[in-house]
Amino acid sequence: MPYSNSMSRADAIARYTQISSRLPSPVNPATTRHVNSLADLVDDIDVFVLDGFGVLNVGATAIPGAAKQVALLQQLGKQVFVLTNGATVPVEQTVEKYAGWGMNFNASDVVSSRNALERGLAKEDDSLLWGVIGTSFAKIEQLAARTLLLGDDSAEYDTVDGFVFLSALDWTHDRQKLLLNALTKRTRPVMVGNPDLVAPIEGAMSLEPGLFAHALADEQVCKPKFFGKPFANAFDIVIQRIKNPQPSRIAMVGDTLHTDILGGGSYGWKTVLIKNHGLMKEADSENTIAATGIRPDFIAATT
Questions:
Q1: Given phi > 0 = left and psi -120 to 50 = alpha, else beta, which region is 45?
Q2: Tens digit of pLDDT for each residue in 7-53?
Q3: Who contacts 282 (Cβ-Cβ below 8 Å, separation ≥6)?
Q4: N or C, fewer C-beta in 10 Å, the chain?
Q5: Are 214 and 190 in contact (CB under 8 A)?
């Protein structure tokens, strides 16, 4: 499929629906309750697991009131975590980003899909040379014993033993072709550290690694392994950090039906769809829920 620098929200939802057979099966509540914000759920939920983009921020801008809402939940004694599919940088830098917006999280409160990817790579042979699709500041040397940041040299794509898709910030159409050609010549593992197709940024939706990975799967040149929401490997990390977890009192909060809501629901948690800031901002909620077959327990206008 052709790519531009961004994708409309409607096209992204349609694409998620197209690739839904590669995702977990939905586990839905019978009904959905509408609320204004997360403050309306403090009697129902003890543990709030927040997505980043679309819940705490849009691009490089914090969502108005998000910091106050996080502080309120923490003051009420709620356990508040972040579970983000942002894998570009180590989680310590993500914690610093939130601190800059006045959101006070400890390092143990923030989990990224990169953490799940690192666990997956740790199970692989240390001798493998991984070609990493990422950025110069991604600290890829922390991912595995042998890594190589891929660019525009086709020989490097042919040389590596497998591919790690960490970030699409520097990804181009030509590099996607190089990757496709390399996998056509010789199939190899493709480990995807961000299953998102898109993410909300100022005025648009950015293209994310999941979009390009599913395009490769469509071409049948590989079967990507995904790390992050909606897959259980990311939720497994969070659940280990929750004190006295009771699934019926844990809520995954996010803006995307096919990652946050699908993942949280299939893991046995409650789910909260944030309507006004991310992927669902322009969508008719009920029509989209009916079309996708993914239903949240709650819909909140804002964080």
A1: beta
A2: 899 999 999 999 999 999 999 999 999 999 999 999 999 999 999 99
A3: 9, 10
A4: N
A5: no
Q: How many Å apart are CA 303 and CA 272, to the nearest integer?
A: 10
CA distance 185 to 287: 43
Residue given tokens 């620098």 in the structure block: 5
Distances (CA, A) of 194 to 104, 141, 185, 228, 264: 24, 18, 25, 6, 16
| Distances from the Cα of 3 to the Cα of 42, 78, 208, angstroms | 42, 42, 11
Q: What is the DSSP letter of 188?
A: -
0.85 cut: is pTM over it?
yes
The pair of structure tokens assigned to 29 is 């509540």
| Structural tokens at position 294 | 């993914």
Of the candidates 78, 163, 76, the residue with the CA atom closest to the CA atom of residue 120: 163
How many helices and strands (H and E) does the chain possess? 10, 16
Alpha-helical regions (H) of the chain: 9-18, 66-75, 91-100, 113-122, 154-159, 173-185, 209-218, 232-239, 262-266, 285-292
113: Cβ contacts below 8 Å, ≥ 6 apart: 84, 85, 86, 87, 193, 194, 195, 227, 228, 229, 234
Peptide bond into 26 cis (omega under 30): no
Q: What are the tokens at 11?
A: 């096209």
Cβ-contact 29, 266 below 8 angstroms = no
